[in-house]
Amino acid sequence: MSKHILLVDDDALFRRSLAFSLEQQGYHSSTAASAEEALELARLETPDLVLLDIGLPGMDGLKAMHHFQEEYHLPVIIVTARRRELDEILGMELGADDYISKPFNFDVLASHIKAVLRRAAPTGNSGEWTNLIEVGNLVIDPAAHTVTLAGKPIELTPREFDLLCTLATEAGRVVPVSHILNRVWGSEYLGESQVVYVHIRWLREKLEKDPTHPQKLITVRGIGYKLEANI
Prior knowledge:
alpha/beta; Rossmann fold; Arc Repressor Mutant, subunit A; 4-stranded antiparallel beta sheet; 8 helices; about 40% helix; elongated
């Protein structure tokens, strides 16, 4: 069965053009001009992925993203027309699965869609880990997809979970950014180190007592990141 992609954008010409291209690639697509319309469509037929513009009439795209994630647990690719908006996305803890800025080449978007759908599949990266992982007072259970820190449950997105597992299995050792990108995001993202920086920051917000002075997730400049084994 073809994957269903919901495209949310207030530009009618853009919606028609992109929906046609998605259909040509074998996807089932539906479109909405507003967040409210998109959420109603999702209630009727839950998509596999949402392409979501930020600048929407009525409810903005960022609020809509939280509804899609909290109510339907859907992967979301944020689409933005302005670099300023993209900078704001990267500077905030928004939790989008991916982002792409307009104008974009459709082949680039297609590769991002494939990567996000692959990661969202039940057979994704977290399935590679089966045994309990313990690093100091951090306990990761890949089978149950749970994380506890000093006995307290920590809620992570699927991407954050895979990133943490990648670092935890190499606890005490520096993991290069290129290895993290290939393992967690896929080869399509090699060279896009910004996504790693952003997700490390989000992880620090959840795991560190003082995220501005991390003790667990350490940056090794010019190389990558290390999860301290004894903290």
